[in-house]
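User: My collaborator and I are trying to settle a disagreement about how two of our proteins should look. Neither of us wants to argue from intuition anymore, so we agreed to look at predicted structures for both before our next call. Could you fold the first one, then the second, and keep them clearly separated?

Assistant: That sounds like a sensible way to settle it. I'll keep them separate. The first protein:
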Amino acid sequence: MSSALEPGRNRIASPYLKDVETIIRELDTDIGVGLSSAQVQARLSRDGPNELRAQPVKPAWQYFLRQFQDPLVYLLLVAVVINLASWWLMDGRDWPVDALVITLIVLANALLGFFQETRSQRAVATLANLTQSSSSVIRDGAMERIPSHQLVVGDLLVLSEGDSVGADARLVQANALRVLEASLTGESEAVSKNTACPGTEVPLAERSNMVFKGSAIAQGSGVGVVTAIGMATEVGAIAHLLEVTPEEVTPLQKEVRAIGRMLGIAVLLITMVVVVAVLILIPVDTVDDVLSVLLLGVSLAVAAVPEGLPAILSLVLAFGMLRMARNKAIIKRLSSVETLGAASVICTDKTGTLTRSEMTIQQTMTASGKGRVSGVGYAPNGQIDYLGMPTSKGPVHNENVLLLRGGSLAGNARLTQREDGSWVIHGDPTEGAFLVAQRKLDAPVHSTNGFERVAEIPFTSDRKMMSAVVIDHEHNDQRLLFSKGAPDVLLQHCTHIQVGMDVVPLTDDLRARAVANVNELSGAALRTLSVAYRPLTASEDVTTGQPLETALVFIGTVGISDPPREEVAPAIVEARRAGIRIIMITGDHPRTAARIAEDLDIIPAGGRALTGADLDKLDDAALAEAVKSTCVYARTAASHKLRIVDALQAQGHVVAMTGDGVNDAPALKSADIGIAMGITGTEVSRQAAKMILADDNFATIVLAIREGRGILDNIRKFLRYLLSSNMGEVLTVFLGVVGAGVIGLVDEKGAIILPLLATQILWINLITDAAPAIAMGLDPHGEDVMTRSPRKPWDRIIDTRMWIGVIEVGLVMALASLFTIDWLLPGGMIPGDASLVEARTGGFTVLVLAQLFNALSARSESTSAFRRLFANRWLWGAIVLAVALQVAVVHSPPLNKAFGTSALTFGQWGFCLVVASSLFWFIELRKLLLRLKSQKRAKTYIAKRE
């Protein structure tokens, strides 16, 4: 085997030029049982995983050093240099305390940023693992589904419609196989595949007996032997595909960065004003005085800008995505979290999403009458009751046996029995329903063991039918074609009908009766499928390409029930309350779709569905009008879904679209939120989607939208908190300098005294920024999160109303801090008896405590902080930690020297707490006024409507 492989390349040379027997022999595999477990392990050890070369993982030390690559860190380092210069000019007396403190703060900020970034990277990596592709292989004689990165050379790769090809493979079987290879060859149309050797070398695009990693199965089925993996594949050779989640900047992150830049410019201007004012108003006698003023300006600029915003934002988004993943909604990109919060329309499939996907044939309709399939579960002792007809003999019995047998043969599902005697379906639930119904017949008449399936014409969304060629070994090896599909489509291929044991021409009356039967089943909310057949002549063959699905004999129609999921109706009610419109788009009969939609209250009683045929008659303008009111679409194709999505988006809607097949991929890509099914969905649909439902459940979509809204709310919370708190720091220094004479911040010579030291500002920034902000990012969602209308895509995260609140809260915070300084200092408006160090410590402490009160209040713009006050234990933990650190900086002698503080008495602590709480009561009053104003607006609106 080793000689057949190219050294170190994990591939076999020119496999498309070799016949199947040679490939099998060289790769030491078996066409029937595949590789053994021992062979797989040996090849994995030798060749490694089937992965493309990703970007090398950066070591932890590089992430740590990256924390210093920030303009604000450069400012802090400038502050260190200024302080060291001042210390040097003072002949190096004592220790350069300020320089040491700033250096420690820079290191502490770097550690915090490092922690946030690595946690975010791990969270995104976990989500990337959840969205890895998978492949079906035959190993040890059994078919299994494995992650594609576990494929090895020599594996038997089983290909089905919708699969993403996991590795380069030489085809050994191909049934009407068509593959999309645009990602590799640029060919936009699906190309046909076969097992024949070209004989001579041909370009990549003409190697019809090969499938390549990263391509997609558009139609048909096949089996291939893996001939190359990882970087040895064709797509690896050109480095065209990278199977990792790309790092991208989301619109929200762009907005936050823009805010940071804007704040930076604003704060720079304010800092210049403060520095110039101080230099003018304070006597500057020495170089050390100048350096101290410059140090204050640098510290003020650093403290005013929330430099941790991007890291905190990424961390909160990543944690939110993990929380969604635990709830069965896997979000592939950070940007999708933002879009989820703005979703205004959900376009959903019916089967398996709104319904349980527990397909059971309830009724049959043939030319001779109606039958009802009864029996419990998959027990083989059930029977078919024929309404108004004999139960054991008669024509309807023969027709139903043929109907169920034909439906089973024209399908790919399997029914197997477990050790405990129960039965399980492998494959499509609808196809499995025929097998289950057969088991409810008496054993002698249900068996299909005498039939050998030799060919298949696969189902496609455009054809809406599939066929199988079988050999009836019990009747002289007669070859038969059985077809199964949508009744309206299948009837177009039929010229005769089965009536008992006879085959008669399908007259207009018989055709009308068959259509009436279909309508009756659809009206009972049953999904309908019809079955037809015809004998084949010796000259007819699938491989010749001649049409076989003609002149069929119509057997009958089955009515399949698939009850709605119990959790869907409440989810639809919640979505409606949130202002989200629900639209059902299905391939089912319009009556079936309308009945299910009525049961789920998607449309009112008597509502109708718009069909694909109806849509074809509408131009773009007419479609734009139709989508405004239509909530159910039936018998749709891929092009219809795409038109519906585009029309809704043109009207300003943010559209979430579900899908599971290859045909859904264009609509999934076009939708704002493409949602693929994790259980029944194809690899192609999962790759095209931005979100994957691990449980295929509609209720999970609504839950994900709730989470998305909650995450955006939490982002607004910590933005409100950080911006207003930093505004408080800026205004404290600015107003303290401007109003120094009023509050007593002047010395005996009349020189202005700074209200806060540079190191105190940096300390506030360290203990009150990151931990409370992250805790608010994990805040439990508010009660009103699903009672508001969807957020418009053009709405700003930080709107005018929030900016007004930020300035108001920052102003009150600054006034409270300066009032404390005035209260404690001698002179000013309120004469006190404390020293400058004590007064400055009091103002410093009030500013810290006020920011912690602000953390409690910032959790909502209008709801009282007393509502669910203790719901966020992480926030309380951050507050307790910050208070403990502030107590330490006030009462620890080493920290007193480092930060220019002194111990406060118990009474002074109480005073500081009361003054700081004034911010809390101010915000509560502001919220009350906002609620009253909102209620007044609502009453006025109701009065106008009445």
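The second protein, kept apart from the first:
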Amino acid sequence: MKTDELRESYLSFFEEKGCVRRPSDVLVPRDDPSVLFTPAGMNQFKDQFLGVGKLEFTRATTCQMCLRTGDIQNVGVTAYHHTFFEMLGNFSFGDYFKREAIHWAWEYLTDKKWLGLDPSLLSVTVYKEDDEAYNIWHDEIKLPANRISRENEHENFWPAGAPSLGPDGVCGPCSEIFYHPNGGKDNVEIWNLVFTQFNRVGDPPDNLKPLPKQNIDTGMGLERTASVLQGVPSNFEIDTLKQLCLAAADTVGTSYKFEAPEGRPIRRISDHVRAITFSIHEGVNPGSLKESYVVRQLLRRALLEGYLLGKNEPFLYQLVPAVVEIMKTPYPDIVKTVKNVQNTIKDEEEQFLDVIEKGLTRFAGFLKKAEQEGKSEISGEDAFDLHQTDGFLIELTEALAAKNNIAVNRNEFNTLMDRHQKDSGRNAFANSVMSEGPLTALHKTTSDTIFKGYETTEAEGKVVGIIAEDRLVESVVEKGHAHPVAIVLDETPFYAEAGGQVGDTGFMEADGVKFEVINTQKNGGLTLHLGHLLEGQLNLGQTLKATVVETRRAGIQRAHSATHLLHHALRTVLGENAMQRGSKVEEDTLRFDFSHSKALTPKELSQIEDIINQRISEGATVSTELMKLQKARDLGAMALFGEKYPDNVRVVQMGDFSIELCGGTHLSNTGQVGLCKIVNEEPVAKGVRRIHALTGSKALEKTRNTEKLVQEIAAQLKVPRPDELPQRIAQLQDELRDTKKQLLKYSSKSLSGTAEELLERAPTVNDVKIVSYHAQDASRDQLRELADLLRKKGKQVALILGTVIDGKVALMAAVNKDLVKQGLKAGDCVKAAAKVVGGGGGGRPDMAEAGGKDPDKLDDALTTGADYYRGQLEA
């Protein structure tokens, strides 16, 4: 059975059992701060497991793309470890439980209609105290006792060790299913059934309290099960990943065989390039923080494997089409971002190869240091310094050290690395994926807030929740709260911040009560009105009149509608690869991030601005419609990759030129934008650019301010019309050049007098004049001219001059050429002087320049330079 067939088979089986088939959640969950990447199939169902919000279904099945880095050292080494992988799962939220989960798992694995595995090659484990699960396997499935193993809480409990070690919260025993190919010689875990039936409270004994609703969370590794069905020794040998390994080997310039020495690095390259392709597809580019840091490390580790195989140029980007080819059936969207993903990967590869080349010199220094100290290893501190300062991965340091028959103190390195990760918060995943708090409690007792803001900016709503000082309260009294109070209504016209659009502001009122809303946020299905009580007492169950500030909402709508026009214009001018990567929409102000590899030209920006304002002048109709997600995709609606969309989505269409998935508030026609003015374009990340623009009154104000500024400049330059400014500026530049020439003549005369004065008072050593001079407010050109004058006027001169320019030291040293023949070098003098001011430099033996950071020590530097000359001449 092929991998794609297995995925479809599993999902179809559990659909027949009444489970709702759900799409994979995004790989990078934006609304879940507890994890950087989705680590398991249950993550998208955390609210259902916690009983939070409305329960639309009680059983589900998914194939979830996941990313974990906890076992990264084993990737490519063992047969089954990955960073990116797919997890097949079936779930129950207070519906079916152990009996159904076990029976269905056995049916799917052994029934010839489905996988048809030999039952005699399967065994299971259960938690040692879980007699219920044991009896189902033994008495109902008829599995012999010698193929059922009872294990402790560290092996068969979720979370591992929870009864004794915690944490408090939802937990339960699990049952693992193993397959034994080759007559039982090997042992492959293929499925884990988790029975979440307890709430852990405090320390043992009697700390596991039964939950009112019992849940099922199962996980079957897609790649691992495919390897069993296809009879291959490793996940990397299945039909999909084998293709990727062969492509990677071909790109690197080697062959791929599972047992060959090159097999491990090729498998690691294949695994990592799949992970980074999906991450960058969702808009997570390589960087230095959080998930971006993980992507950078995966990319660099993969590139390093190729580098050590002799591939000293970018190659990972060439593998993106191969990843897309094997993954496009379940995830068709990745086809649309191939070019952007490739450009981003290639840029990062080029940067890291530069890092390697620069780091080789420092590595050589540490190698020499170890040899001089008679040590057989490079210290962990030096290896960590290479890693942290130069971006030199520890694997590269170890590989190069091995080539020189020397080791690296890995234990010391690991200690320093662990300390660094703890300090910088770069651990890939948080410890907990479940959390309790006032909002969680509110979700359990309150339905989702009904949003009325598409139709109106004023509506009545009943107070169903009040959170003050981080706890649920029944009332709040007017007083100076240090922190905003959160009010939840059953219905509201206030738009909660989402999709880049900021939350509404306004007021909520009743007789004798006035509450100012300073921000509106969303938590799950609840809308939180954050603000301060200005008058009276606000009580649970009270009805309030909620009013949004209309002028601000109108400005936000102008800016939001303009982002759709901007997206359309960008794709028209730059091509379809210019896809949205994020946005921020405020009152008549917007910023828009999009995929593009280089800065926009002035001509391109003008074209984009023209298209936007042309669409505004057309006054095209803006319509919205709620429809099924698949229907919206079939209509060609553009979506933000990496964004999680519900089954029913809101589609915003402008004329016949723009159709996008969008939950924000909009105008009724494009003409209401009024005017759109682009004010800035800049880079924000590799392959991502950002445009800032203004709409409505702010765009008009920007235009007027620019006109006013031009008029003021014209008045100051005494130009009757602004269009004559370029001619007047050119004239002034000519006059300035002439003035500089005249000043140079005068300064030359002044410098000539200075040179004569310096030579008169200069000390003489062996018939050589030693000149040391701190020139006030001089330029580098003036220092050079003075040096030339001194050498011309004096027969034998050794000089050191200095000045301060823009807060930094400039030094100039020079000697007559006859003195150079005698061994006196200006370069050595200026280097000695530069050290005093924290700088460096050099040049020809007869004239040399240097710089420095410490102006306060300039006189000391000049003295040092003069002492150098004196010492050399006296010697």
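Some points you might bring to the call about the second protein. The chain is about 40% helix and 25% strand. The two ends are 89 Å apart (CA to CA).
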